[in-house]
Amino acid sequence: MGFKDNLLGPLPPGNGLYTRQSLSTDKDASRTPTNPPHHPSYKPDLDQPSAQQLPSVDQCICHLKLLTARANLQEDISTSESLFGLSDSLTERLSDRNKQEVLPKIREKRWQVYVFRAVERCRVLWEREDLSSHGHFDLITEKGKVINWGPDRAPPLGTICSCDGRSSINEIPNVLMVLHSSMQNPRAFFEDCIRQEKMDVWATGLPWALINTCIDNSSSTMSNFEQMTGFALDNLHDPSTAKTDAFLDDPKRPFEHGRGYVDRSFTTTCAQCNFTTNHEILKLQKFRRDLQALLKDDVPMPGTSLSQEGRPDKALNPDLRRHEMFFPNRIIIGGLKTLLINATDNIQVGKSTVTNIRDAFDRAIRDASLV
After folding, report:
1. What residue spans carry the Low complexity bias annotation (predicted)?
2. In angstroms, what CA-CA distances link 270 with 264, 267, 274?
3. Is the pLDDT of residue 249 over 70?
4. Are 200 and 131 in contact (CB under 8 A)?
């Protein structure tokens, strides 16, 4: 083994497609065109690993392809001029110094709007009935069934292909991007699967084989996606609701006064009932939906299913309602439900905040009759 071999070290593990010759930097060899070597067909190992197994090399490669596609997607969206009404020309009246600071924030805003839209599309697919396990909460310790992902079983996630060493996207995999991001917080994702009867999704994981072989983006698949979700297949073909007024009133704090859904100061008023919605009200409405699921269907509130170790502990009491982790649920059912329902009602919601709900829990914990 010569100096070059010592420098390169041993070949990395993989699928055997790379040889020492392909890593050579010999100038003479690069000048002599040669036919590419013939390689036997190779089937990547993309089966889902068990809880005790490490991901295979091929799964890691597929994961890197996915991350590359996501990075390229972000670059394409953020640099698309005038997308969502956000134009680089908004910086023309700024000084050169402010322009250099604001331009990246305009591009970041385009990506932010795109992600918010992608989250809504993923939510619609997540709530589909055929992804539910139809199990009860007391059966969550049973193993979920692995879903046989396929073009007719999963939404079209996009075509990821290699072009000049860079992944490109024919149909944007924005739904997959959101699902992948959700899985980055396994504790929250696990609890969502438990509470919303999606343990089969938890057992299956990401459809690596489907990602690796490129998704069918035929016209029939596009039509199927649009029929399932009510959205256009391409995120960019959905109607835009972003607002650009007052985005750059203060160059030092761009978008500070924006009122679009992705802005901190989001506010919108219903033309029929004059009810005004903002992010604080949306938080209260989300809490109300979780509250109604607890009272009507015995679905535990978020954050009350898993122990500090991130797993559902065995209930020591045969009556699951007395399970230690369900203490917040018992307080709500025992004495807070009327107060919380009134606080999150649309008529009262303008007078309530998330802080009011937290204060109500603090008072209830000090009430000996409830605890």
Report:
1. 1-17
2. 19, 10, 5
3. no
4. yes
Mean pLDDT, residues 44-67? 75
The pLDDT value given to residue 248: 39
Tokens representing 42 are 């190779």
Coil/strand/helix, residue 160: strand
* Residue 303 phi, psi dihedral angles, 5° rounding: 90, 5
Whole-number average pLDDT of the chain = 70
Which amino acid does the sequence have at 153?
R
Strand partners, 160: 169
Q: Which of 163, 164, 171, 158 is nearest to 212 (CA)?
A: 158
Q: What is the identity of the amino acid at 210?
A: L
DSSP 267: E
Q: Which residue in this structure is represented by tokens 């649309």?
A: 346
Burial per residue of 285-324, b for 16 or more beta-carbon CB atoms within 10 angstroms, e otherwise: eebbebbebbeeeebbbeebbbeeeeebeeeeeeeeeebe
Torsion of CA 323, 324, 329, 333, to 10 degrees: 70
Residue 314 in this model has a pLDDT that exceeds 50: yes
b/e map 168-200, b = 16+ CB within 10 Å? ebebbbbbbbbbbebeeeeeebbbbbbbbbbbb
CB 349 within 8 A of CB 285: yes
Q: Can you give the residue ranges of every domain in the chain? A: 57-237, 267-365
Mean pLDDT of the 132-147 span:
57
Beta bridge partners of 268: 277
Angle subtended at Cα 295 by Cα 290 and Cα 297, rounded to the nearest 5 degrees: 85
Residue 102 tokens read as: 């604001």
User: Are 194 and 186 spatial neighbours (Cβ–Cβ below 8 Å)?
Assistant: no
Q: What is the mean pLDDT of the segment spanning 116-135?
A: 74
Lookup: tokens for 356: 């009011």
Residue 290: band (very low, low, confident or very high) from pLDDT cuts 50, 70, 90 = very high
Alpha helices in the chain (DSSP H): 3-8, 27-31, 57-78, 96-126, 174-183, 186-195, 199-204, 208-212, 219-229, 279-297, 327-331, 337-343, 354-365
